[in-house]
Amino acid sequence: MSPSRPASTGLSRPVRRTTTRGAFQGMADNQSTNIKIEAKHDFLKSLASNVTPIAAVSELIWNGFDAGAQHVKVILEPNELNGLHAIRVSDDGDGIDRSNVGKLFGGLGDSWKAKSHRYKGRTLHGKNGKGRFRAFALGESVEWRTTYLDGKAFKSYTITGRASQLTGFQASLPTASETSILGTEVVIENLESNFPSLTNDSASLEITKQFAAYLTESPGLTLYFDGTKIDPASVQSYKEDFHLGDVVLQSGKRVPVSITIIEWTVQTDRVFELCDKAGVSLHEVVVGPQIKAPGYNFTVYVKSDHFRDLDKENSLALPDLNQDVSDILAAVKLKVKEHFRRRTLQHRSETIQRWKDEKIYPYEDKIEVNASEQIERQVFDILAVNVEDHLPSFDEAPAKSRKFTFRLLAQAIRENPDSVRTIMDEVLNLKKDEQDDLATLLQKTTLSKIITSAKIVADRLNLVEALSDLLFNKETKKRLLERDQLHKTLEVESWIFKEDFNLAGSEKTLEDALAIYIGKLGKREDVGDVSDDPVLREDDKGGRIDLMLARSIQPTQGSHEYLVVELKRPSQKINSEVLAQIESYAIAVAKDNRFHQKRSRWTFMVVGNEMDEYAQLKTRQKNRPDGLVFDNDEYNISVWAKTWSEILNDARARLSFFSQQLDYQADSDSELEYLKRAHAKYIPDELAEMATGARA
């Protein structure tokens, strides 16, 4: 065994130990070695007290696996009053080499694990040598009974400690072992209490959650808790792994992250387990209300070796304050939300198919379904699935009764949306505040308009993600045609640039822009006649703009604001030439006497996939908003350069509140469906499918 190797215990012994000394009774105290710990008693006491019973037992289990054990057992030994007499944690690891016991038990903060990281091919859990003190959270007396290999000889000895004397341990001298089974057994006696959290029915589940990812990653290991084998699969209803790839941190560093989502068959708290790559849990974070998955009990194991680095720096102690943890969890939450949306849809789809098989579904199967009926069906599906989920007795009712209920619900949605509140009240048993909210809304509007509003938000979310796919997918961005496809799509989606703008013109010369401009103002004496003279740039050339958007500036009547957007194909970087072109358009407007109107404001914007270094410097100037490259107060003209990433992120930010309230996020299927429904005229199905990765 290596000099820095830790300890563990055999699972089966020829001698039954029933007292603290047990088979080691013959080792006299005057043969023992005192191990002094250079730390204040109060600090050591804090290590032993600020830990739950489950966490303390888990530390001892980890110590066993860290010592190379294949099998670890936790035995809760009862007393005559059906309370707890002792807690035993035994393993068949390599034991504690007696020559290293002073270093292993006397050191604090420089554990051998912090230097080694791995042992026998496994990632190690501990690192600071604090785990042994966790045992004193359970009882006053703790004894490690260990058998190790000294050369070719099997030797045994004990290490004892007391909660009242945490600054030192005693290690007996080794003797020839009565067994050839290596390992360590930790015996905790004089317990602080009966620890109901260890003896109740949920204890095994809590241990299962702690070790689920690790045992899954290392299927040859076994763990028993109070006679029950810890088998993550036995209480799982569903398990799925996801590789998120590299998550880009705010610092610019890229870290690989994967997650395992386990759905449990029993009630449990929802948490993120922050693990290293091998599934060793290092810290736990409550999921919180951001992820809505009604009816699901789950744990998310977030696996990255970056957590190991953060743990070494004690940065996981307050994960909410650590930017790296926040960055990783932000990416994880998006994936988890997507997972449960898909699982909810899967559950809904399976339930609806069952209704169709039972012939109680109130709608006929048709190839062509118009938009109105499609929305009606979606509302019905959501409400009806909730009826069944909220009322367990509903699926036990006769088929004729359920069919009649569904017909009434469908008719109410179609003909009298206001009556749905009564159905929800009587059937779904909504909370009082939810009933009041719905009733207030239905006094001011109709359910159909609420649905339409939600649909607009969903459509916009789908467009943002679909555009992202089209513009940044390696294959589709080569095939996307700027004017025939991207340009035409954006003509009817002008909100993507600014929410309150409407399309005034597209692919117009500057002269056309002038005509539109004058038309908005109406004929005015200070404008004069509109001639056919071209609007010329500084090189006496004309120019063509892609999109011109316009809005009235409120509350001042007769004032207008114009946004001119120049679109660049995905392969064209925004560079000095592109910036010069868009600035020349703006200056042409500025110097043309026909445009000099104090009651108008012009914004020119060039949009592309990427910027070169020159453009990046121009768009990041001191005391200017990001993207502003030219600004002239005299003529109310500004010029901006934006990447599509910035445009799409701005749109996401505007929609984020509604997205959270609706608990809606676009996925590949919904993006494809929207492109086919709204933009099939310009975006071919093949291109849409390639971009989104979905198939119709």
TrEMBL record:
Any idea which UniProt keywords this protein has? ATP-binding, Nucleotide-binding
Superkingdom per UniProt: Bacteria
A Pfam family per the record: HATPase_c_3
- The region called Disordered is annotated at 1-21
Where is the sequence biased in composition, kind Polar residues?
A: 1-11
- Is the Transmembrane helix keyword given for this protein? no
Q: Where is the signal peptide?
A: none
**InterPro entries reported in the protein's UniProt record:** HATPase_C_sf (IPR036890)
Molecular function GO terms recorded = ATP binding
Q: What is this protein called?
A: ATP-binding protein
Q: What is the source species?
A: Pseudoxanthomonas daejeonensis
Lineage, uppermost ranks:
Bacteria, Pseudomonadati, Pseudomonadota, Gammaproteobacteria, Lysobacterales
